[in-house]
TrEMBL record:
Residues 130-184 form the PDZ domain. Keywords: Hydrolase, Membrane, Protease, Serine protease, Transmembrane, Transmembrane helix. Residues 491-514 are annotated as: Disordered. This is S41 family peptidase. It comes from the Bacteria. The chain crosses the membrane at residues 29-52. It comes from Planomicrobium okeanokoites (Planococcus okeanokoites). The lineage of its organism: Bacteria, Bacillati, Bacillota, Bacilli, Bacillales. Residues 497-514 have a biased composition (Acidic residues).
Length: 514
């Protein structure tokens, strides 16, 4: 059967299949465009809601990292289901503190805005407090060293004292920053530290009046025989310029040899320690090394500039830490300068303080440092070339001036008082912690010498005078300083002068006063 053909004049239609295909393509395009528009609109609304909505703000900013999922879950659970309202900022600060504490590193710390502000005060020109460097060790806040002439030093606070309470509140387990927040305060206010020292069986309370602590870090004096004694108490922003000034002044007074003293110096700024080290080390020789995780040590070399050309010794002790140890290692290993005293504290790490957007601060250990010979002294310290101990009386504990020690009293405080008076050459009888007749006579003689009311009872002003006299004796008969002076005089070829008679000393004092 023949196919029928359309008659002429009729419009020719495309085959049915072709017509349906064209119709479907039109509808698909429109549908796809509609879907795209809907997706864009939905995405815009979602971003707006998540960005400006209160409840979902955390999810927008949350990094898609699987290890944080547990943290977010814990945060949401506490925020939504804890039986009381929770401060979100405290939760976040607590989480960061927990991460830092898990490092087990006493030198790493997270500080909120208020704590960070106090941290920055420590490297400024002054701050208000008691004037002592502290550190957390094995769960206890430990004194590294008191600042020279500070309320803490005057109250008898010593390196390695453990502070177990502040104003009666236990601080065991506190971070260094948390403890400092309690100890510091306004000038003129009191704070009571409960102290454990050495082998003491019972703690003692030490009440200290806070004061402004000026950060004057260099003290210098001529100590006879053309030898200068220059003490550096910490490494702050101005320490290097202070030291240069002190050296120039001592030169004007005839200095031919020098004893640098970093005893009870807890450290400070790394750059300050390097600038000072550079004074004593020949150009091109190594000062110290810094080694970050997974990297080769970065070596710091001495540069050109002013150099100290006269003989020098360096005094160190258990309170010499961090930047003090950098200086000691550099001077000993790269300049053959003798170290005199006791083994140093042993802090061989470097911290970086990172300011966060809200004013808080994350300070953590970023590297370890090595001496020029590649030694890591962390928790080991640096041994002196010439070991000299402090006399026993230099580490006697503080006596509470509010109590009365008198005939018939039996206590550890009496034993301490007996040792103090004996060190000052008073006859106390047997040192046994029992206040008896000979002790009464010794106290009366001491009170008479000090022009105090003679009662034979130790309390108040008598106790303060006793501790002041002992501190003066420690400074006058400093065995470490005397040994360091002797060694540097031998190196410089200086002959010891004859000791002054009392008359000569009085004449010298009169001339100085004029």
């Amino acid at each position: 059967m023949d196919d029928k053909r359309p008659e002429e004049g009729n419009e020719q239609l495309p085959p049915a299949e072709e017509s349906r295909g064209h119709y479907i393509r039109l509808k698909t395009f429109s549908f796809i465009m509609l879907v795209v528009v809907l997706i864009l609109a939905t995405a815009g609304l979602t971003v707006f809601a998540l960005t400006f909505g209160d409840e979902k703000a955390v999810e927008v900013n949350s990094p898609e990292r699987r290890e944080f999922q547990k943290l977010y879950t814990a945060y949401d659970e506490i925020q939504n289901n804890y039986y009381e309202d929770v401060d979100r900022e405290e939760l976040i600060n607590g989480a960061i503190n927990g991460m830092v504490d898990s490092l087990g590193d006493p030198y790493s710390d997270y500080m909120n805005e208020e704590e960070a502000s106090q941290f920055l005060e420590g490297i400024s020109s002054s701050f208000e407090g008691i004037g002592a460097e502290v550190q957390e060790r094995n769960g206890y806040i430990t004194i590294v060293s008191p600042i020279k002439n500070s309320p803490a030093e005057k109250a008898g606070i010593q390196p390695n004292d453990q502070v177990i309470a502040v104003d009666g509140e236990s601080i065991q387990g506190f971070s260094t920053t948390e403890a400092v927040m309690l100890i510091r305060g306004e000038k003129g206010t009191e704070v009571t530290l409960t102290i454990m020292r050495g082998d003491m069986q019972d703690p003692i309370d030490v009440t200290i009046v806070r004061d402004e602590i000026p950060i004057e870090t260099v003290y210098s004096e001529m100590i006879g025989d053309n030898v200068a004694h220059i003490q550096i108490t910490s490494f702050s922003q101005d320490t290097f310029s202070e030291l240069e000034t002190a050296i120039a002044e001592m030169k004007d007074e005839g200095m031919e040899a020098m004893v640098i003293d970093v005893r009870q110096n807890p450290g400070g700024l790394l750059q300050s320690a390097l600038d000072i080290s550079n004074l004593f080390i020949e150009e091109g020789k190594e000062m110290f090394e810094v080694q970050a995780k997974g990297q080769d040590p970065e070596i710091y070399l001495a540069t050109d500039g002013n150099k100290v050309e006269i003989p020098v010794t360096l005094l160190i002790d258990g309170g010499s830490a961090s930047a003090s140890e950098i200086l000691a290692g550099a001077m000993s290993e790269s300049a053959d300068i003798k170290l005199v005293g006791e083994k140093t504290f042993g802090k061989g790490t470097v911290q970086t303080a990172n300011d966060l957007a809200d004013g808080s601060n994350l300070k953590f250990t970023t590297a370890k440092w090595l001496t020029p010979d590649g030694n890591w002294i962390h928790e080991k310290g640096i041994e002196p070339d010439v070991a000299v101990d402090y006399p026993e009386y230099a580490s006697l504990p503080f006596i509470d001036a509010s109590i009365e020690l008198k005939d018939g009293t039996i206590s550890e405080q009496v034993r301490t008082a007996e040792k103090m008076l004996e060190a000052l050459e008073y006859e106390v009888g047997e040192v046994d912690g029992v206040f008896e007749e000979e002790m009464t006579q010794a106290v009366e003689a001491f009170q008479e010498d000090q022009e105090l009311e003679v009662t034979g009872i130790l309390t108040g002003d008598s106790i303060y005078a006793l501790m002041d006299e002992l501190r003066a004796k420690i400074e006058e008969e400093d065995p470490m300083l005397l040994e360091a002076k002797k060694l540097v005089m031998e190196e410089a070829g200086i002959e010891a002068s004859e000791p002054e008679t009392d008359e000569e000393a009085e004449e010298a004092e009169e001339e100085s006063a004029e």
